[in-house]
Amino acid sequence: MSPYYVGDLEMSVNKKVAIIKVRVMHCEGCAKSIENALRLLDGVSSASVEFNKRRAIVEYNPEITDVDKLRQAITDAGYDA
Ligand SMILES: [Cu+2]
């Protein structure tokens, strides 16, 4: 699957916000499962998934985790990111 990673905003040294496209999700329930999967990751301080825009917005500490791990968590939950 091609990466649909969209952007990374630098908030401060220890905080970044990643905007990750989620290619396939079917309902708000999917969005909630993805949110829950992301929130369980070490280094993630907040995660919200916008179902209508098919994207996840994740606030994370780049010293602990990275976008590849965020995307992996979405993929492991059963969705293409
Ligand atoms: Cu669903």
From TrEMBL:
<dbReference type="InterPro" id="IPR036163">
    <property type="entry name" value="HMA_dom_sf"/>
</dbReference>
<dbReference type="InterPro" id="IPR017969">
    <property type="entry name" value="Heavy-metal-associated_CS"/>
</dbReference>
<keyword id="KW-0479">Metal-binding</keyword>
<protein>
    <recommendedName>
        <fullName>HMA domain-containing protein</fullName>
    </recommendedName>
</protein>
<dbReference type="InterPro" id="IPR001802">
    <property type="entry name" value="MerP/CopZ"/>
</dbReference>
<dbReference type="Pfam" id="PF00403">
    <property type="entry name" value="HMA"/>
</dbReference>
<dbReference type="GO" id="GO:0046872">
    <property type="term" value="F:metal ion binding"/>
</dbReference>
<dbReference type="InterPro" id="IPR006121">
    <property type="entry name" value="HMA_dom"/>
</dbReference>
<feature type="domain" description="HMA">
    <location>
        <begin position="16"/>
        <end position="81"/>
    </location>
</feature>
